Amino acid sequence: MDQTTGFLGLGSMGLPIARNLARAGHRLRVYNRTAAKAEPLREFENVTIAHTPLEVAEPGGVVLSMLADDNAVTQASEGLAEVLGPDGLHISLSTIAPTTATALAAQGCGFLSAPVFGRPDRAESAELIVLSAGEQRHRERARPLLEAIGAAVHELGEDPASANGVKLAGNFLIMSALEAMSEAFAFAEKHGVPRELAAQVLTTTPVLGNAYRGYGAAISSGAYEPAGFALRLGHKDARLVAQAADRLGVPMPIIDLVANRFTAAENKGRGDLDWSALAIEVFESAGLDQADPR
Amino acid sequence: MDQTTGFLGLGSMGLPIARNLARAGHRLRVYNRTAAKAEPLREFENVTIAHTPLEVAEPGGVVLSMLADDNAVTQASEGLAEVLGPDGLHISLSTIAPTTATALAAQGCGFLSAPVFGRPDRAESAELIVLSAGEQRHRERARPLLEAIGAAVHELGEDPASANGVKLAGNFLIMSALEAMSEAFAFAEKHGVPRELAAQVLTTTPVLGNAYRGYGAAISSGAYEPAGFALRLGHKDARLVAQAADRLGVPMPIIDLVANRFTAAENKGRGDLDWSALAIEVFESAGLDQADPR
Predict the structure, then answer these.
(1) Which part of the chain is the 3-hydroxyisobutyrate dehydrogenase-like NAD-binding domain (chains A, B) (predicted)?
(2) Interface touch B188/A177, C-beta < 8 Å
């Protein structure tokens, strides 16, 4: 902690993250384009406010960035790599394209991808879920910083782009859940159950948490037998949903998609496997083996 | 508990459910088409095995059924209603169409829809999530039985079909999660992260549980401001997923669907709302108001 750490980007996520780093005793030099957003950090003796982005960096030092998108990160890091040099480390917390991470890693300073899961309230309480991918020495150097802002740090290997791939996969799961919940609540409401009640029953019980943990493990390991719930029964339920949705006038694009997966899986003789075996169809369509090919 | 309760259907769900009722001290008369499946219940002194389905019923009594599909329930209940009579109660635990529940409720005996969430292991440990809908007196009469088999009993009102609507909505959410996880794991694996690791990071952390609880409440109450994560940023991430999926050859039908939702929402001026505001589009498409219309 004898070194000063740079921090770029004090938006709704960056500010609470920087605050937690300061609370943990890290000496920080922070910068934000809109200077007023740095004001709340003045209360910390160990934080100094910079007037230009490059000012937060020093040769061989560490800079974290939490910026809005790929362009912002790419622009900010142009001069950064030059100042940091080969012994420096840029830790990118932003959600950016895996290809952007690969490009940033080639800029001449050390680079670590460390995108995070969690909204501002989790950032505030230092309970983010942090992904970390890059060279092992970079991951080790970054760990005390990342542990100060998160409830867990998951290390995903040597290739920085991997962390961005998993972060996007996670955001995709959340988007899918938003769409699916919206469809499900509309469906329930057309059956006379107010959406608030449907939300309470369906999302505060362990039903879905159990489904992700249990089925996530089954799908990833290919454990589709013995069936806890046979795929042909899942198909039957998909038909019931589709029929009721049609009868009550609820457009539910996901049910059509899933029903077709079940049809394909049954045609391929998978009706007696667990309904999670619809995953085989998805992996095959991606050119992936059922068993992990690597 | 001085009355004998009938039980029809001793499959992978019915058997452990009947066993928990017997353990709780309820006197049971059980029937299964394949008689051998009743054998494990012989150890209970308070269980008798019937030779015909109608034998489990008595005038004014209670019969629970846990059968494979709508046809099986409809067939079984034909004679049942006649034997049970107007003071009797048929409690249907099966996942059937809401319209089938409505038809069964008109057969002349009391009828309660009580479909359950949980696989055989949860049935075994009496940790099912039980839905209950029908006349209040039926729900009250059924409660001791339902509490003996579940961790929670959610009462959903007077119309039996409501419980089946919510049960199908829940199964739909699980199917959607199966499809979304399969797509997400394929995506992560194409980024060099084995699906087992992706599953572990994405499904055993609180990320998704928090998303369902937090966003479920936001969507059902229409609380899209202030944005924890702006819809236009969600749209940006949807584009990043779609681009990476295309580049790496991962068909991801859900991302196309969700990206189009975000596009429509932005076109309607909702870019600064929380990304969960994609729900407005879904509710509108179902002819439902943003505020609960009832």
Answers:
(1) 163-278
(2) no
Domains and CATH numbers, chain A: 4-159 (3.40.50.720), 165-285 (1.10.1040.10)
Can you read off the two tokens belonging to residue A145? 């910083």
Sheet holding B128-132, edge to edge: B116-117, B128-132, B150-155
Q: Distance from A182 to chain B by nearest Cα, in Å? A: 5
In B, which residues are within 8 Å of A212 by CB distance? Answer: 177, 181, 202-203, 208-209
Cis peptide before B226 (omega within 30 of 0): yes
State yes or no: pLDDT of B216 exceeds 80: yes
Phi/psi at A200 (5° precision): -65, -50
Per-residue pLDDT of A195-232, as tens digits, reads: 999 999 999 877 787 788 889 999 999 999 999 899 99
pLDDT at B208: 82
Q: Is A255 on the interface with B (CB under 8 A)?
A: yes
- CB burial of B141-155 (b: ≥16 within 10 Å; e: otherwise) equals bbeebbebbbbbbbb
Decide if B96 touches A, using CB distance below 8 A: yes
Q: How much is the average pLDDT of A126-141?
A: 97
Is B190 in the active site?
no
Would the CB atoms of B182 and A219 count as touching at under 8 Å?
Answer: yes
pLDDT at position B1, please? 47
Q: A72 at the B interface (CB within 8 A)?
A: no
The answer to whether B186 contacts A212, with C-beta atoms less than 8 Å apart, is no
Per DSSP bridges, beta strands B27-31 and B4-8 are: parallel
User: CA-CA distance, A146 to B1, in Å (whole number)?
Assistant: 58
Q: Which of B284, B10, B37 is nearest to A250 (CA)?
A: B284
Q: What integer best gives the mean pLDDT of chain B?
A: 94
